[in-house]
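Suppose a classmate hands you a notebook page containing two proteins, each written out with its sequence and a corresponding row of structure tokens. How would you begin to make sense of it? This section walks through that situation. The first entry is reproduced here exactly as it would appear on such a page.
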Amino acid sequence: MSETQETPALKDASQNPWYVLMTVAGEQVGVGLDFDKELHARNRRYFNGWMASTLSEE
């Protein structure tokens, strides 16, 4: 960015529809070793199931 451009304000992730779709089962609260693999797997299954439902038979 040039010096004359302003940095856009960050938006709350919960306002992003893709983020909401990817965290239907809940959001991660831990990082690193506290990462909840089961929660991640549930969110992935829900998201992949939703996306798969949009595919045609082709």
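The notebook's second entry, a different protein, reads as follows.
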Amino acid sequence: MRNPLYCGKVYIKAYKDEREQYINGIHEPLVTKATFDKVQEIIDGRKRQKGKSHKKVNPNFPLRGFVMCPKCDKPLSASTSKGRNKPYSYYHCFSPCDVRIRKDDVHSWFNHFLKSISLDQNAYELLIELIKEEFVKKLIRKVELAPSIMRS
């Protein structure tokens, strides 16, 4: 990523009274000079990379970030570990409390909680409207962010 050959430049060492320099090579560059310079700024830490968040949504762990740690009250993360015979999935905390709860237990508890909720017709209709509003807000945010993501 640091080699200027990628953008078509060739390094010439200093010779006698001439100083060292980069010149345009006769080869076709793999990337433009602007792209090469942008990558150098990001690698050097002078510029932050814009665009998509690196927070991935994993359908195997839909409650990640929503379930709170019972010890420190921070959001739990989730991961799967490769066991000897099969994979094991857990929701876990990153803070020193080291809480780790089996994925199946968390999902079972959450389903039990959802089943315990009962709404009358008015509350049900209000909930549906709130969900629709949040969905529209997220769609609008995605549409607003799309041009900036496309540019980077």
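A careful reader of the second entry would note: The first helix runs from residue 33 to 44.
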